Amino acid sequence: MPSFTVFKGSKDGSIKKSQTSKPELTGDQVLIKVTASGLCGTDMHYRSGDMVLGHEGVGVVEATGPNVKYMKKGDRVGWGYEHDSCGHCHQCLCGAETYCNDRQMYGEADLDQGSFAHGAVWREAFLFPIPDGLSDAAAAPLQCGGATVFNALFSYGIKPTETVGIMGVGGLGHLAIQFAAKMGCDVVVLSGSDRKKDEAMKLGAREFIATKDAKELKVPRPLDRLLVTTSAQPEWEKIIPILAPGATIHPISIAGGNFEIPYMPLVLKGLTVQGSVVAARDVHRQMLDFAALHKIEPIMEKFPMTEKGITEAMDKLDKGEMRYRGVLIPE
Ligand SMILES: NC(=O)c1ccc[n+]([C@@H]2O[C@H](COP(=O)([O-])OP(=O)(O)OC[C@H]3O[C@@H](n4cnc5c(N)ncnc54)[C@H](OP(=O)(O)O)[C@@H]3O)[C@@H](O)[C@H]2O)c1
Ligand SMILES: [Zn+2]
Ligand SMILES: [Zn+2]
Q: What is the reported pLDDT for 72?
């Protein structure tokens, strides 16, 4: 019976070390020894939950169930936000299993395990081989953050001739800048202050705009597409004037409240609002290959995978001081 250490949230937000035991492996289940986990902004929403945290996992296959076909002991694999889906509905059959009605996702299903752990058991069908060009630590933040921004860009018809705005330079945003730049786009970064300007430019931005104190935003070229990766909803009315006619807004932030946007500009400018979650498996695999080919990697701050290390990392992210993705490494 596999048994491993896990780290959970708790009511007062403190991180608790615990132990999870699983039955013997059945079907296409794979036992993984975790080697790295990213810390995503979404984990902050679950810190006070009685559940194992983390959904940007990378590790090495330790053992395989009787029906595992493609993975073997020693392989490097990753997993993200979605653990399973029905496999039979329209969404599953057309490669959009992230929208399956029976999807099993972080925060809702399998609360006894996550990537803040020394081990995990997942279905082979929902694991991703890690390309040779990516280290375990660098691959971890791609399992949710990277997949989410790549999906928003790649799955909705982006063209290399577009001017793409990336709003928010955090874990997701700093990867989005790199993906959009390598896709050939003209990248404009919008960030609260000037503090992250130098790094954003190095990552591939052509323009950088500080938004917080600006009454009115000014961009060199109207944006054909805007990815919003801030941890709260922006002031949408400030954004409308910098969008090109026919532009698409991709709100990605997990945030409360209604989506309130000036109505007539939406109609008269022919704007599209496109929500999305992580990435379906086919897109996720393409994202990993694209990242390995173009050497797209997170800028990381590493922490030990201990109660203290996780607490430090979460506190740092909470204060807005992470540059730019925390990665936890089991000791
Ligand atoms: N849709 C999905 O499937 C999906 C998947 C993963 C994550 N998410 C969500 O995406 C968001 C970003 O995640 P992340 O991991 O990149 O988080 P993060 O590392 O904390 O980055 C968020 C960025 O938002 C800006 N920001 C911080 N506090 C803010 C505030 N109060 N108001 C406005 N902006 C603020 C900062 O950028 P600047 O300093 O540049 O302004 C910060 O770096 C989170 O809401 C997360 O839950 C969604
Ligand atoms: Zn389904
Ligand atoms: Zn995430």
A: 98
CB of 185 shorter than 6 A to ligand 1:
no
Distance 251 CA to ligand 3 centre (A): 14
- Read off the pLDDT of residues 248-284 as tens digits, 9 standing for 90 and up: 999 999 999 999 999 999 999 999 999 999 999 999 9
Low-confidence stretches of the chain (pLDDT < 50) are none
- Which of 202, 200, 239 shows the shortest CA–CA distance to 218? 239
Q: What stretch of H or E contains 264?
A: helix 263-268
C-alpha distances (whole Å) from 181 to each of 19, 92, 163 are 43, 31, 10
C-beta neighbour count of 257 within 10 angstroms: 7
Residue 196 CB–ligand 1 contact under 6 Å: yes
- Taking the centre of ligand 3 as the mean of its atom positions, its distance from the CA of residue 264, in whole angstroms, is 33
From the alpha carbon of 277, which atom of ligand 1 is closest?
3
Query: Would the CB of 98 count as within 6 Å of ligand 1?
Result: no
pTM: 0.98
What CATH number matches the domain at 156-273, 2.40.50.580, 3.40.50.970, 3.40.50.720, 3.20.20.70?
3.40.50.720
Domain 3-143+298-329: homologous superfamily in CATH: Medium-chain alcohol dehydrogenases, catalytic domain (3.90.180.10)
Ligand 3: centre distance to CA 80 (Å)? 8
Q: Whose CA is nearest to atom 47 of ligand 1?
A: 42
